[in-house]
Fold this protein.
Amino acid sequence: MTYEFLQQYWWFLVSLLGALLVFLLFVQGANSMIFSLSGNDDERHKIVASTGRKWELTFTTLVTFGGAFFASFPLFYSTSFGGAYWVWLLILLFFVLQAVSYEFQHHFSERGERGKEKFFQWLLVLNGVFAPFLLGAAVSTFFEGANFTVEKTNIVSDVQPIISQWANGWHGLDALADPWVWVFGLAVLFLARILGTLYIMNNVDDANIRARCSSRLLGSTVPFLVLFVAFLVHLMITDGYAVDAEGVVSLQPHKYLDNLLSLWPLAVALVVGLVLALYGIIRTIACKTYIKGIWPTGVGVVLVVLVLLLIAGWNGTSYYPSLADPQCSLTIANSCSSEFTLRTMAWVSLLIPFVVAYIAYCWWSLDKKD
């Protein structure tokens, strides 16, 4: 295992965690439609109970994703989490609201205080709308870039030992001035709603809820396809930041398209993922008795997101371009941990299949109790 291999290996693992996180956003997607998918309190309780059994898997994956990024690519962690902190604080805030909402609405439900119970259900709706959008907006900066500078020599400064600094006072919120950040953020939001709809259809045995899900599924699919296709076309024709053997960063025409063509297995995986995702959605819409669309669509989503994250960093690409100074852009090579750290963690990563198996067991056990 060479140092370069370890860098590529850990980018793959971080990307895989990110892809799994997007799939698990079905919890947020379903929560964003609590009131539109239900017609009374009993139906709302069924939906909340269904997502309530799985929300911890999403939150745990988010924390694991952040932890893996911190351990393997600490310069990104210090630059983005330390510089664009308003975005990450807002994401954390909405996930905290989710955790609080599940606990308190159950408490008020038992006491029969419907008004207070609905208040906390509306907090779940807020989490379901803003958490996916903000996560999508944050990930879009992998392609669109961000306003930061990096000066590693500052680490030995007695006056200001800060390596990364944000180039303006907005600290991440400035990304919202880029329309493509909105396009990708909204695409992730509607994708979460698609996954949430498919999950509820599969997990909640209620004819009325499933009937509403069918109409909501089409209403989420159309805007998602428009937004995602627009962003994908934009990505294929836009210039990307390439890094040469000396570490010099420069703009390269059609960089992400070149990555797909050069790494052709990723292009195949992208096509397979899109086909699986559309198959699950279309069959669910066309066949009223088909309720297992969450599985082919979920696998397809994981493949598509994995490919997008891989082409953002592999093949000599800056995965976090600096709009303030392109030479400060972060790459897999200049932002990763030491070889010793990556090698040690690589052995620990062999436990990941057991962790995945445990998650699958928990999923099965929780559904079995229903």
Q: What stands out?
A: Residues 266 and 307 are 6 Å apart (CA to CA). Residues 3-342 form one domain.
